[in-house]
Amino acid sequence: MQARVRGSAWTGDQPLFAEIDLQLAKGQWTCLLGPSGVGKSTLLRLLAGLETGVRFQGEISRDQPVALMAQDPGLIPWLDVTGNVTLGARLRGTLDASFVEKYPGGASDRPHQGGDRASGAEPPATPATRASMLIKAVGLADRADHLPAQLSGGQRQRAALARTLFEDRPLVLLDEPFSALDTRTRAQMQDLAARLLQDRTVLLVTHDPAEAARLGDRILLLRETGLTEWPVPSPRPPAAARPFDAPEVLALQTALMRGMMA
Amino acid sequence: MKTVLALIAIALILWQTLVWGLGMPAFLLPGPGAVAQSLWINRAEIAWNAGFTLSEVVLGFALGAGLGAGLAIAMGFSPRLTAILSPFLTFSQTIPVFALAPILTLWLGFGIAPKIAMTVLIVFFPVWAAFLDGLMRTPQAQLDLARVMGASQGRIMRHLRIPAALPSLATGLRLAAVYAPIGAVVGEWVGGARGLGALMIHANGRMKTDLVFAALLVLSLMTVLFARAVNLALARLWRRYGA
């Protein structure tokens, strides 16, 4: 078990969610599915250690740092794709250009061992080379020096995904990252994220039953009445999303929809 | 530019017509010709005084802008400090600088110091208010990311909040650049023998209205050029940050 939130929350005097117990299993995608306003994002923010504006009573345990990716990609408008991908290093003060130039290959910025699948394990890469590998992995190699304003919505989320991977954290929190995308781009991003975030522990907050049906190793339904674990009939193929047109995926999607309407 | 020149020409013609039509004596309303003549005859005296005023404006602007920006950054770090200081800063702006000028002259003497102090008082407020406003408007998504990435408050300020607030700072500086000469001139009115403000007061006392107008013209031109210079400097800075 990688992380856990147990407790209840209120906004003012109104209960937001009653006693729940959210546990994330190591190396799995946990989908937190539910309508707007039931506290999905609040749960994710609690786990991330961010301000929520709610009163939370209970305990939050997590032993490792997280990476965050949200619906608003939060790209910095005056930094190009490379600059945005390496934002974490810049903000931690480990992106020292002169240092990297003097000692090529010596400036490693990896908060956790355990493998950067996209860049290969050895030798330790500089922030710049890691960034360019990740940008290539998300398919933005020819856009590395573009500013966010010059990118489409899907490309911006690709940049945000590369930035998330650059952080190289074992636990990744996804807060409706693909909600604002058109259907086709969303499906492509789901495939890409499933591939690149393989083996990491992922919490995906979504209001889209189709997305949960494609990506969830476990699916948790959050409703006003509480948190319910939804049975997932077939395991997800490794490093991939389930096909969107497979009958059992469509059946699961329908069942989840019914669950949300109930 | 053509339109502007045409409008100026029309205004000058109207002005001259008014002077002729009403038969005003020159000490009440000099015509544009008289003003131009005075400007030329007194060019050395006007330039000498304008130099003093300009140096007061530049120094006061730099100090006031630095003070305003520094205060905004300090308050951007600490909501507590903002809550405590904001009412006082707003209160300080309710006191007319004209009322403060004699007191500042009393305290700081007849030299350049009270003029600079007046300019600082006028300049710091718009810079502080606009910049702080910008610093408090960093998009939440970016702040969340920075928090999760483990950034310190200082680095968040330096890499996210300040760059994002630069357009707001520019707005404040542009406003301040236009108002800065008011502070210097008011200071010169009240105490001192140098500067365009002092020149105007003396010329007014001797009924040399044409010289008052000439000095005003130079002051306005100087202000426009100063504001323009500030704009250019900001545009350059912005380009460098954008690159």
TrEMBL record, chain A:
It comes from the Bacteria. Residues 1-249 form the ABC transporter domain. Belongs to the ABC transporter superfamily. The keyword Amino-acid biosynthesis does not apply. InterPro entries: AAA+_ATPase (IPR003593), ABC_transporter-like_ATP-bd (IPR003439), ABC_transporter-like_CS (IPR017871), ABC_transporter_ATP-bind (IPR050166), P-loop_NTPase (IPR027417). GO terms for molecular function: ATP binding; ATP hydrolysis activity. This is ATP-binding cassette domain-containing protein. SUPFAM superfamilies: P-loop containing nucleoside triphosphate hydrolases.
Automatic annotation (TrEMBL), chain B:
It is a multi-pass membrane protein. It is found in: Cell membrane. SUPFAM superfamilies: MetI-like. GO terms for cellular component: plasma membrane. GO terms for biological process: transmembrane transport. Residues 50-234 form the ABC transmembrane type-1 domain. It comes from the Bacteria. Keywords: Cell membrane, Membrane, Transmembrane, Transmembrane helix, Transport. Its main location: membrane. The chain crosses the membrane at residues 57-77, 89-110, 116-135, 165-191, 211-234. The keyword Cell membrane applies. Belongs to the binding-protein-dependent transport system permease family. This is ABC transporter permease subunit.
